[in-house]
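Below: protein 1.
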Amino acid sequence: MDATPGHLTEREGRFLSLMAACAPVRGTMVEIGSYKGKSTVGLAFVARHYGLGHVVTVDPHTSPSITDPNEPGESSYEAFCDSLERAGVVGDVEAHRAYSRDLARGWDRAIRLLWIDGDHTYAGAKEDLDLFRAHLVPGAIVAMHDVLANFEGPIRVFARDILGSDDFGPAGLCGSIGWAQYRPGQGGAPRFRRSRRWLARRVAMLIPFVREGQRQRGLVRIGYNVWRALVPHHPRPAEAWVEAVRLGPDT
């Protein structure tokens, strides 16, 4: 992953790999938004090592995009293919050059990890969650990138549609990755609901500071950074995360 271009930090890449390896259910790993393949490469190595099947990726690779504003007019598709080739993971990836809504029309596979890093508008991020939510296996992990970044979509969807839903149990953040475990029928338990609501209140304080397509400046930027520091987003030990998402008769 370090040798592949992209926007994941090292700790985010490690955490994504942890989720891919340790999601406690069987199913397909789906990546929405591939860009130049940084997260794809990480997921593919995990999938190969643990015999988890192909990683399914979907991205139209169109440009310009609000998530890659520095490369107007250039598609990321060739760079994506080059990344997979250099990493030697072409055979571990089922890549779709399409919009997620197109892939969703015929989708019929159970999902164990849904990694959302595509359209960062609210409508786009919400659509990605809504399109594939019905295919999540109980115990699956949903993760979104750029929740704690200057994009309105991921943070609103994470705060309202994930943390605000009793379909999800354990939840948290690592860097700018927001994650939650799909626990329909269990997410309404007091211990899950209290922790999700506490986190949702912290995250929601940042929403007024982000606007689609607008760069933060001056006092807005300062205010955002102050509130962001109050949102817990440091990595927890791998063993503690695995224990938090472990499934058993009493969960």
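Below: protein 2.
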Amino acid sequence: MSTGAAGLARLEREVIACRACPRLVAWREQVARVKRAAFAGEEYWGRPIPGFGDPQARVFILGLAPAAHGANRTGRIFTGDRSGDWLFASLHRTGFANQARAVSLDDGLELRDAWISATVRCAPPANRPTPIERDRCLPYAARELGLLSRVRIVICLGGFAWDAALRALAAVGEPVPRPKPRFGHGAEVPGERFTLLGSFHPSQQNTFTGRLTEPMTDAILMRACELAGG
């Protein structure tokens, strides 16, 4: 196992064992006990969610947090919820994923040249982590960026991830422009090692209203590929 792969494996174990945020621990475990009726027969993961993807990735995708009945149920980021259905379909269309759907840990999904992570690793109540919870989780994303030595593009799914990514980049020594760059769909911030790329989050609030369309998501991923060197 390479040094990077070994470090990612250690980090995954640390993430899964984390109990740093009492509010999030209580909520994720309550959801795993009570369950949604549609998944009553399933055993929920109910723990923090590690990053997932290709250790040789050049593209790093940062989301908000696990969905209560998505990743908190399945154990893999963006797996088993509508946002994930949207994202993985786009990753498949643009060549980053071997299949268009993600339903479970053993569904055969593989990513190529992409790594997916979350700003906060536990499902938060109302899908709203606090700034303190974000800051407690932030070192995990910073360590991932340090271990994923080929990453050059950081796609931020939403403004919360955008702010967190700027903090994570600063933590790994990447100069951050001042004033702070504003989030927007398609916003780009080139840096010494990383280029930050903004995208609306594939939440139902965005996809159902047409604020985010499939071509818009595909275009962000293709732009990331272009910026990473094709």
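Residues 131-147 form the longest helix (17 residues).
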